[in-house]
Design a protein that fits this description.
Blueprint: E1 4-7, E2 11-15, H1 22-38, E3 43-48, E4 53-56, E5 73-75, E6 82-85, E7 89-95, H2 110-127, E8 133-135, E9 138-144, E10 151-162, E11 165-173, E12 193-194, H3 206-222, H4 228-231
Parallel strand pairs: 2-3, 4-5, 10-12
Antiparallel strand pairs: 1-2, 3-7, 4-6, 7-11, 8-9, 9-10, 10-11
Helix pairs in contact: 2-3
Length: 235
């Protein structure tokens, strides 16, 4: 697999080849966010995979890192709690200038921006006949396990906004090793499980998922439509 970059007038899409070390991602995001803020770089949607890591958000509790010796641990600087990243998981880092509107997301509205990320994932999952849902009081996208009737998390969301430029983003479980989530309490919600497209019986390659992510992005963040604030769907 080779890296691929697609650039529009104000926005670049990049698919990173191989497994990107987590610190490299943080460093590039910091640099890119500063350049977007200064007007010297386009916005960026960056699709990556990481080697296995545990990352701590600003609300992470030390006791919820159950197996600290299993994988490297990093302070992410984003919102949220503990998250696992690893092969088979599509991480999308989203660096947008929220000083301007993006499709259904109006200017300076972080709640609507997060709602847009949720909608992006829900529409992506819908393409694969998976019913992703929001849950009140819980971050991320959830599905109901058809065998147990229990909620399981299929995608995580963790964002940071610096002077109205967003960074970090979402992580969708395509075909990761779900046992690796056992080293943490994901997002502080120990009573719930995690799942993936593969675990739900969906046979989809990472390229398949990337293609759908790109199409769903157009629907939410490019095409004009009623904003989440206007429709009452802001969170």
């Amino acid at each position: 697999m080779t890296s691929m970059t697609v650039t529009s007038k104000r926005q670049e899409w990049r698919i990173e080849a191989g497994f990107l070390p987590y610190p490299d991602a943080i460093n590039l995001m910091r640099t890119r966010v500063a350049a977007i803020r200064d007007g010297t770089a386009d916005e960026l949607v960056w699709l990556v995979q990481h080697p296995p890591v545990y990352t701590a958000g600003t609300s992470a509790r030390p006791e919820e890192l159950v197996d600290p010796g299993r994988f490297p641990v990093f302070d992410a600087g984003r919102g949220g709690q503990w998250t696992y990243h690893g092969p088979g998981q599509r991480v999308a880092y989203v660096m947008l200038d929220l000083n301007r509107p993006h499709g259904r997301v109006p200017v300076h509205d972080i709640r609507c921006y997060v709602n847009g990320l949720e909608e992006w994932l829900i529409r992506t999952l819908r393409h694969f006949n998976v019913h992703g849902e929001r849950r009140e009081g819980r971050v991320g996208i959830w599905v109901v396990n058809p065998a147990t009737g229990q909620d399981e998390k299929i995608a995580a969301i963790g964002v940071r906004v610096t002077r109205w430029v967003s960074w970090h983003g979402v992580a969708l479980n395509v075909d990761p090793n779900l046992a690796h989530f056992g080293g943490i309490v994901p997002c502080g919600l120990g009573q719930y499980g995690v799942t993936s497209l593969t675990a739900l019986g969906v046979c989809a390659s990472m390229q398949d998922v990337d293609n759908v992510l790109r199409a769903a992005w157009q629907d939410v963040f490019v095409d004009e439509g009623p904003s989440c604030a206007a429709t009452g769907s802001g969170r």
